[in-house]
Amino acid sequence: MTSKELNLRLKYALPEIKELYDDETSWQDGDNTGSHIVYGDVFAPFIKEQIKFNNKIYLKQLFQFIEDLLLLNDKYTDEVISFSVIESLLFDGEITKNMFIQYVGQKTLKIIAEIERD
Question: Tens-digit pLDDT profile for the chain (118 aa)?
């Protein structure tokens, strides 16, 4: 999957982040901006905000989106989710894994275990 394809999946799956997405990508390469940047600077902070507000229904949706991406079994997608989203959540000083673990799927759990093992 290309950066553009992965970015557009995010943009269309979560229209409520379109403004944040456009702000981040407009001064870079638009939809072709690297997905590590888009997912790390737009999606991960958005998830953290939902975790801090304990938005349970929305967290289920966000982590289902992550799981759906991981189910594509695409190497680039897996790297973006692992390094730019999951690591960001795990190493954030203001949230803990216990605040979101109940929402993650099996593929996401596997990535969390791999990151914690390393």
Answer: 999 999 999 999 999 999 999 999 999 998 999 999 999 999 999 999 999 999 999 999 999 999 999 999 999 999 999 999 999 999 999 999 999 999 999 999 999 999 999 7
Domain count, the chain: 1
Instruction: Report the distance separating Cα 71 and Cα 106, nearest Å.
Output: 10
Global pTM exceeds 0.85 = yes
Left if phi > 0, otherwise alpha if psi is -120 to 50, otherwise beta: which for 34?
beta
What angle do helix axes 18-25 and 3-13 make, rounded to 10 degrees?
150
Q: Is-contact 104 66, C-beta < 8 A?
A: yes
Write the burial class of residue 42 (CB in 10 Å: 0-12 exposed, 13-18 middle, 19+ buried).
buried
Q: How many other CB atoms are there within 10 angstroms of residue 54's CB atom?
A: 10
Domain hosting residue 40, numbered range: 3-117
Distance CA 77, CA 69 (A): 7
